[in-house]
């Protein structure tokens, strides 16, 4: 269905308290949980890998949406399937064979996502759409939470028309807040990742703040 989903990014959560943070955002209305995997190579930051994602699994009751900002991707696909990822998203810029990567993600039993950096045009995924369940449009240069939103509404509109009536999500990642969310939703996005906008001002001791932030987005 095409109702808007909010996927808080735990990149902005308390890293020493992931289980309670995940529980809090889900109790407060998160539709999916977005997990940013960074390798210090494809992006200039490091987060966590398959063992951590596997440890998150029993705490995520909704959908575990894993965003790989790593290269290479293919040697790790099975590890993320074993860790329990529901959706595994790879960047189209991460290698020469995204077509093969998306096939392998589906063959491993997950939904396949493909992400585009801000500088990458919509047509980079045109011939991948039949292998894709989700297109992630980056509205920041990936690597860090809390960056300024880059307007990609033209790209989102182009993707929506390229997708036609195929059941493919358009996810927006980066700088989503109460001001930018309506712009991307109007352009055709249906999954909104939000890190700092959801976690700011809150904690597991006052989870209502997360709820208010999720509603505001
Ligand atoms: C950026 C990550 C995002 C990030 C978004 O590289 O992919 O998911 O957590 O954070 P905000 O919402 O703070 O821009
Ligand atoms: Zn992300």
Automatic annotation (TrEMBL):
Keywords (A to Z) from UniProt: Carbohydrate metabolism, Cobalt, Isomerase, Manganese, Metal-binding, Zinc
Record field: catalytic activity: D-ribulose 5-phosphate = D-xylulose 5-phosphate
GO terms of biological process kind: pentose catabolic process; pentose-phosphate shunt
Cofactor note text: Binds 1 divalent metal cation per subunit.
Residues that, per the record, bind substrate: 9, 67, 143-146, 173-175, 195-196
Cofactor dependency: Fe(2+); Zn(2+); a divalent metal cation; Mn(2+)
Binding sites annotated in the UniProt record for a divalent metal cation: 34, 36, 67, 173
Active site: 36, 173
GO cellular component, one term: cytoplasm
GO molecular function, one term: metal ion binding
Enzyme Commission no: 5.1.3.1
Pathway in which the depicted protein is active: Carbohydrate degradation
Origin superkingdom: Bacteria
Alphabetized NCBIfam families for the sequence: PRK05581.1-4, rpe
Protein family membership: Belongs to the ribulose-phosphate 3-epimerase family.
HAMAP family tied to this protein: RPE
Entry function: Catalyzes the reversible epimerization of D-ribulose 5-phosphate to D-xylulose 5-phosphate.
Name recorded for this polypeptide: Ribulose-phosphate 3-epimerase
